[in-house]
Amino acid sequence: RVVLRSDVEDVIEICRAGAEVLEALPTKAVRQGKTRPNAIVDRLRQYMEKRVRMSSSRDFAERDLLEYAKHACENLDMQDFDKAISRLNEQEGILLRVRPGEYEFTGEVC
């Protein structure tokens, strides 16, 4: 079998380009997965959407959300729970605080 010089040069060029890309990649590990508060946000959102679909009640007591989060997430840290509630309220705007300890789910239900 015959290999042309231009083919060898093309392979060398591809290898060099690959080496340049490899050098440009970060040397530290890139964080994968979700932060703990974001995982809690997802679980709480799913819980509230499901409960709204089943009972059509959009009102939630903070203690009920906390109990669900404790059940759904191992070793729940209250600081992470507070961050999750804050994120649902302030950033996503789907959990409206009606009065202390009481919330209304204002998100869309699929």
Describe this structure in words.
By secondary structure, the protein is mainly alpha-helical. The protein has a domain at 36-105: Arc Repressor Mutant, subunit A. Helices cover 59% and strands 11% of the residues. It contains four helices and three strands, in the order H-H-E-H-H-E-E. The chain has helices at residues 5-24, 36-55, 62-72, 78-91; strands spanning 59-61, 95-99, 102-105. The protein is elongated, with a radius of gyration of 25 Å.
Strand-helix topology:
Elements: H1 5-24, H2 36-55, E1 59-61, H3 62-72, H4 78-91, E2 95-99, E3 102-105
Antiparallel strand pairs: 1-3, 2-3
Helix pairs in contact: 2-3, 2-4
